## 1
Amino acid sequence: MQYHRNGFNPGNYQIPDEVRKPYPNPPITDLPTEVDVLIVGCGPAGLTMARQMAEFGDISTCIVDLEPGPLLFGRADGISCRTMEIMEAFNSSEMVVKETYQLRQNSFWEPDSDNTENIKRSHKIFDARIGLSEFTHGIVNQARLHELLLEGMKHSVTGLEPHYCRKLMKLNVDSNLTQDLDAYPITATFERSDTEEQGEQEVIKARFVVGTDGARSIVRRGLGIELKGDSANKAWGVMDVLVVTDFPDIRVKSFIQSKDHGAVMLIPREGGYLVRMYVELDLLERGERAASIKLTENDLIAKMQQIYHPYTVDVKEVAWWSIYEVGQRVAERFDDRSLDAQENQIPRAFLAGDACHTHSPKGGWGLNTSLPDTFNLGWKMASVLQGKSHPKLLQTYAPERRKVAEQLIDADRQLSRLVATQPSAKQLSADQRKTDTTDIEAFMARQNGFIAGTAIGYYPSYICTGQENQELAAGFNIGQRFHSAIALRVADGRQQHLGHLVKADGRWRIFIFGSTHNPCDAASDSGQLIEFLANDPASPVVRYTAQDADIDSVIDVYGVFQQQDLAIENIPDFLWPPGGKYGLRDYEKVFYGEKNNDVFDLRGIDRSRGCMVVVRPDQHIATILPLTAHAELAAFFDEFLLATDCN
């Protein structure tokens, strides 16, 4: 797809440039006085949390933001493979895939040894992340991703929409009520910022609050949580521009380092014409902020043009620009519990996204770390609010995501040093300036799984266990996301990405990867497991599913088998169960491996023994068990799920 040919125009890219218009700011409606979940901030973390909570009609959610309406342009642009997988869980990946620039190559430019005033391409390589996922790392306006999340919220069962023009003035958490799950310990006071009712105050009481209100988070300050880490010592400019140039790699992600004028990191943008440029500026004095640097967009353009010499870059339009400082900090806590809190204390207030980790934007990690924060938290909060899980499940959010934030800060610190030509001191001699791009290439190769988000894993815990069985499926790493692969559906022969079956609906998944024994044989290992899951009182499916609910409403079970000649009518009923008010059969739960692209080979599954792979609602692998481990499977779910009153 091509757009922005005659100038940058934000909005829905499915509408032609000539008639596309920015969305008008939505009307302002009164805030509710009491909700289950209050979300402060409409960035990627906040909207992902809201998108998840919107799936549950029995949970009341309110999301508020200071701005008068949705984001239109600027900010983040990179969409990692893992973020694309999450968007697939929200049934929104197809539009992202269609509209994004797909990042396939990287080029590296250094001073020309024959004339160091010029730059020269040293080499070009394929992007290291290709093949880590069925999705490709993409580049698209953050506002467009927001729009897709907002559309999903609006068209959900709850019809959830944000409340804009609200500034959080005060947040209070009543510690006397935090252990009572039915209580509303959160009191938030907001002030209207629209012209009609400017200054009017509104108060909301909530059972839980999630602060996704950015690096200067008022929620974080209200909870008394500090950011720890390095202060900024380096300034960069960033701008989205439409250019006419003779630079040959204008449509390739490029790392460009000049001898004397600094560095540029170029990111091609969606639509075929727009590009983003990160321009290295001077180092900051101690305590100096980027906001105090008196530069204009023309200064950034002039600096960029010096770096590109001898190529010309004629900027025709600047869609957005900003100056920022590089600093890496992470919050000491991600929830309202003190560091010495009692083991049984239930967290009621949470931080996510830039509210709890700040860094440079060059690695594309801001959005791609913020969004998974609340993808992790959302299903846990919903499960607790619905009475399906023990409240202690909420304690797992902070340690899981804080580990990722610490890894992010370390990686960003490394990348920031590598990309810059003057990384550590304001006065550098010519031979001290760094212009070697091979270190950047090595870093990208070494960190490719983390950058893509596909290698991010969680510590062993009661929802990440079974490491002793890892060899049963070596390619499904416990704690990491379920790495999708294609299988064929028994009922109709259709190809299906197994990972796309794990939707953001709060349900757990069990994938039965069968052994060499035919699952249609009741005496086989798969047959006995299916019988246990369907009928045994100890079965987690039986124990935790209400009698009047569909059998797969809490735990959704799939079968993936090696036998090529299976017939759906011979498969046990449990794997093609009736559901809904008419009892219609579900024919989309049983698969077999392709001959030439077999999931058993791709993911290192032990063919002789098979295994169970239990996948969390956030698509991360919770445990791997032998097919015969019925009691162990029951014990896993018994640790945190709560039996229904209906059984």
## 2
Amino acid sequence: MTSLVELRVLEGPNLYFPRAAVKLTLDVSTITEAGDEAVLRFARRIGLRTTRPGSPGSGFRQRFALRAVERLVRAIAAEAGTRRLAVRVRPTSDPDVVIVAFPWRNRGRAKALGQAVAHALDALPTPDVEEAVSAAAAEVAAAPRGDTPGTITPTIPVVAVTGTNGKTTTSRMIAHVARTSGLVVGWSNTDGIYRDGVLVEAGDYSGPSGAGRALGLDGVQLAVTETARGGILLKGIGISRNDVSVVTNVTADHLGLQGIDTVDQLAEVKSVVPRITRKDGWSVLNGDDPRVLAMRSVISARPWIFSRDPDSPAVREVLTDGGRATTVIDGWITVLAPGADPDPLVELADVPMTLAGLSRFNIENALAAASAALAIGLPRDAVVAGLTSFLPDAEHNPGRMNFFSLPAGDGQSVSVVMDLAHNEAGLEALLEIMSGVRRPGARLLLGLGAVGDRTDELIDALGEIGAKGSDVVAIGHKEWYLRGRTMDEIDALLRAGAARVGVTDIDTYATEVACLAALVERAEPGDVVGLMCHAERQEAYDWIAAHGGTPDSPEVLSQKVRAAQR
């Protein structure tokens, strides 16, 4: 068995270093299970001459393994000619598996070092461990240097957006505001690469290649990049720095993947984006999210927070330190600066994305977008114009809180709301919006679904949240997003969550569109149908249009909200 579980070359700033690095995932059971004589001989060889490694399998031995692997990397590198090398070592949820990372300048040598470390570990149980370390160093010294990192140093301003929920909507709003100001904008996100609002290439470009593509588009004057956790962990960030960063929030999502098992670990991953913001730039942070606010401790840039509460301690602290804040005062999106009067930008009621002030999440997204747009230097008037002209429809914000009306006879209608809603917070936001447009006595009908790479616990929780928050629930599967699971597995988990709150009458459909059609058929005038739509967004739009549905204008949506409040 080899000690090398995975060798990954990170092309740019990452969880471990603000520059390109190699990440090794190593099985260190040769250390944790080695006999006392072998492990002491190994320790002496790598320069740990006074050490107490503890007994095999103990917690002390596991701690020793972390220290020993770090010294092993440094020892091999030094003997191969690299005298100074930064090394980071982290434990994982498996006591016999560790993560090791070190920066690289030459790809060939860096990969050879990673492989040589594993070869030395493989030799630990044998009598010739001392020679194995020397052989590993010779292996590295003989390796070709290889390419240098391709990390891009931007020559135009960059706004980088990350977070669990809201990053796509927020980045779309920022790009829209910038285009409103007259700039040519390159934009990368989970839907594709855009130049000046036109899709250049479809696909998930929230990783490092997306940033590079957006920056390289002809004539682009500003880049807006959406940065997802997967890209940071698997490839690193494709650019060396940004001018303004935005962190929308951090909630449970994608846990159990790539060694990220807790929300705190996920927050650390997201913090890579503000950590590489220029010192004279701005980091826009959610002041209502403690994990995001805590990122102030790791940034070099100036802090600009957004908060729905103008009197929050976070607002006071940041203003005291010379930062900025965007908040809501008397129903107005308002900018606060030290020693200055509040600057009311625009009323929430005039910002369509807030859904007449109904959507708490979209209020936060609007606050974040306004902050970032001002921080990057866009004119105040353009920010106001952009916020008031960005609509929650399929053109401006596809797949996120899109509202429609379908005819239901006698001049009445059924409301349909489509949203990605891919995690617990997203589903709670969808249900909040659905409730906000439900007329008295009407029902909520939810099309529930999940992608396969979520944990059992999260899929189960979606079932519970959806069943508890709606009157009728059905399951619409996402065939292209099963990601190693079967429909039956996902079905069982969603049903188990729903059963916990007493809901067992649930129909299942093989597709999202079939689920939507069935729920609309069951709906009565005034009811609200919500669809967690991930796989068949365009197909759902087409089905709604074919059945006489029309997108809700801001005016129609406001009327629905007022009717629901009677």
